[in-house]
Amino acid sequence: MPILAKSVSSYVEKASWIRRMFETGGRLKAQYGEQNVCDFSLGNPDLPAPAAVARGLRAFAEHAREPFAFGYMANNGFAWAREKLAAHLSREQGVELDADDVLLSCGAAGGINAFFRAVLDPGDEVLSFAPYFVEYGFYTENHNGVFKAVMSRKDTFAPDLDALEKAVSPGTRVVLINSPNNPTGAVYSHDDIAALAGLLEAKSREYGRPIWLASDEPYRFLTYDGVRTPPVLPLYQYALCIGSFSKNLSLPGERVGYVAVAPHLPEKAELMAGLTLTNRILGFVNPPVIGQHLMAAALDSNVDISVYAARRKAMAEVLTGAGYEFRMPMGAFYFFPKAPGGDDVAFVNRLLEEKVLAVPGTGFGCPGYFRLAFCVDEGVIRKAADGFAKARAAFG
Q1: The CATH number, out of the four listed (3.90.1150.10, 3.40.50.300, 3.40.50.720, 3.40.50.10610), of the domain defined by the range 6-49+303-394
Q2: How far are the Cα atoms of 19, 181, 269 from residue 9, in angstroms, in the given order?
Q3: pLDDT tens digits, residue range 99-153?
Q4: I need a labelling partner for 47 at 20 to 30 A (CA). Which of 165, 264, 266, 349 fits?
């Protein structure tokens, strides 16, 4: 007798490849020992949080003795925390934001869901460039939307604006971008985002309703070789940036994120009222208390990016030595090489025989590639070299 909704049953059957490989890794580690498995499946940052986080936690421990230290607050977060975040994002985005332009959420995922609940009517389309984070589709369907992928340019993984223009329709409500990108490490240029904003502005006028541009930015801080992540808020009045402190402060389990809207949005007060309501009625109620204190204490801090840069270099050397074809990631902590032989699922399964865990590109809407998360110790990367070489050789 079925007990789950049909949609959830189908989700369980096609569960995220990321989680599936992570769980496979757990079984391999139990069987062979953790030191004998090279796990590149999950983007779970291993670097310790910056010292400012520890200082913030000690300060909160003193505050925790006060009445209501862990009590409810406004559904969009503490006003003082939003004020500090708005000042930080003003510098980052190059626009003047105040506390009323920002909502604190339960991670970036909570922010995306609150936003979708606020703006999507049943059947509205969300477009995103492939490869894309697989849960975008789930988030869209949570709110009766329709998720559609537009393939990015395979030579650079930059947005293909010609393909997007053909895909946009009167039913399109949101274009969701992710830069620096998971899984490719691509960083969209200012010119690409400006052209995208211009396209959406023209289409919004044509269809008589706004098409939102939502930029998912948890990796904004993590770029290499002098590359910078351009801001979106100055470029389009219907733009939002959505982010978290999971990666830059190594706080993924604390679940604190945000949504910031363009300050020149005419209907800003209406949107923020909607976001505040959906943040509550989706069951988040309000962002985590401790997370807000830690965020405020560490806003100008980051983990040691040089460690990720060294790991990126090591992974590139290992893949090059084994004969893989790949683009050097300009941001985030992922490589997205071509799968030898073209069948990414078969190749990832062959890597498992070498006790190396990766995620097939099929899980990101881009077959023929596979993802490697290099947020692991450099020793693990070097240790995997033999396994990568053997798997590559097995596919000619």
Answers
A1: 3.90.1150.10
A2: 16, 29, 38
A3: 999 999 999 999 999 999 999 999 999 999 999 998 999 999 999 999 999 999 9
A4: 349
